[in-house]
Known about the structure:
Elements: E1 15-17, E2 20-24, H1 25-31, H2 36-44, H3 50-56, E3 57-63, E4 69-75, H4 77-83, H5 90-112, H6 118-125, H7 128-156, H8 160-183, E5 187-188, H9 189-195, H10 203-211, E6 217-222, E7 225-230
Antiparallel strand pairs: 1-2, 2-4, 3-4, 5-7, 6-7
Helix pairs in contact: 1-2, 3-4
Amino acid sequence: MVNQLPDVDLRHYISVKENQLYTPSTRIAEVFEKEHRNVLRAIRSIECSSYFTALNFELSEFTDTTGRKLPMYNVTKDGFMFLVMGFTGKQAAAIKEAYINAFNQMAEALQNKQHDNGAVMALQATNQTLQGELLQLYRDKAQLLEQQLSQTKKANTSKPTSNKYFEHKKHQFIHHVVQYLHQNPGANKTNVMASAGYKKDDKTARKWLADYEGIHWESEIIGISHAYFCKE
């Protein structure tokens, strides 16, 4: 449903320094509606090589509205893509696409310039007010779509018979798993799911297994697999 959202142009969020395109971490926080401190924390906790970090996350600073100088990062396209992999949701996915498109369009403009950065600077300044309005429209539309989806899900699960059947299946699942783990402590996920009559890729059963971990059973990673143990 992302293609129903308005096309947001974020090119004015991309800057040029020594022929390198980057976006400030303050802009990333603004567009994704996150606290800047949380974006800084995400950058500092990224698990990548020191070479990649130095190349794609340049430490800098900005002056806030009170006059304080605070840290920020200038983030390249590669750094941006690495950073936002953890940002989830329909709105986040669509904004990622718009941001990457902006990087690509600015890269093309930079490549085609003849003498100086005048064309790029003009491109950055174009329609900033309009883009701000479009971005807000983008967010409002994404929120509306998510609300509609949530209402549809509630309507589809409102029938008492369906809910009663679902609860019965869930309690059966819990009962079978607990019985199996009493007899087979340390069983892997595939065998645990099979003991309740489900395949390992069944989404509903996987959710139940995760939801009741810590209540009826617990798990630990042994090698590359999860081993499950009964708590009861």
